[in-house]
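Course assignment 3, question 2. Fill in each field.
Student: A.L.
Task: Predict the tertiary structure for the chain below.
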Amino acid sequence: MTRRGWTLFAIQSVIWGTPYLLIAVAVESFSPVSVVAGRTSIAALLLLPIALHQGALRPALAHWRWVLAFALIEMAGPFLLLGHAEQTLPSGITGLLVATVPIFGAIVAFGLGDRHALSRVRVVGMVIGLGGVALVVGAASGEGDVRLVSVIEVLVVAVCYAVAPFITYRKLVGVPGIGIATLSLAMVAVVYLPIALVLEDGSPTSRSISALVILAVLCTSVAFVTFFALIREVGPERATLITFVNPVIALGLGLVILDETLSGVQLLGLPLVLAGCWLATRGRPPEPIIVAEP
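Answer field:
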């Protein structure tokens, strides 16, 4: 990989390891609905000029039904579930749970007809990865830090992030990624913004406002631009490796900034989850997909 490739990889890993911290701070005084509305509205407005300049919006509009399906599965559902879950779930554990996307991705691929998706090595990886998740969640539950419903919400997010790329791979081939991202964000914003305006009745803190703005600008709009640049530089297969770095960033930020704790058992679970996800993706051919954005 070139120096530019490594630079883009490092930037993207940090950018998409950060949202879990920012979401946790944003929901301190914003409702989850407002976080989704603010994040998608700002990001859509920032990406729109780029999409128009590149002529990427018209191809996306021509496939609006599948773009809508992508928006629902990749953004509308997951963004809301993450916000609700992180009202009680530590940001570091949230990031670790989302790292199970490759495991669910292999299951989805098998269900769609890829008979090699559940090879012996990948099944072993799934078992190891899910065992690591059980260690992390079990240890945290014993300390009273985790609600089961929050864990389930994040695992549903991981399933959604595993399903959504198959829409781009099978139904949106040839449609520019920036066009898909811009139109998807706009669709979600149109739905959530009116609801947020009606439901939001509190006074958000400057801390939450700052987190929401950074989440929208850096972790959504800038993230998409840099990720597409990363794909062009290193290819889609290598680009997906950020999945294994994101949870480490998320855990570190949670420990340092939010004073979250991590027990010895949880530290043991972390490498198990990452090793399991790596094994679950072994031998998978490169696919032009969009990595799940937190």
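Instructor remarks: The chain has one domain: 3-280. The first helix runs from residue 3 to 15.
Grade: pending
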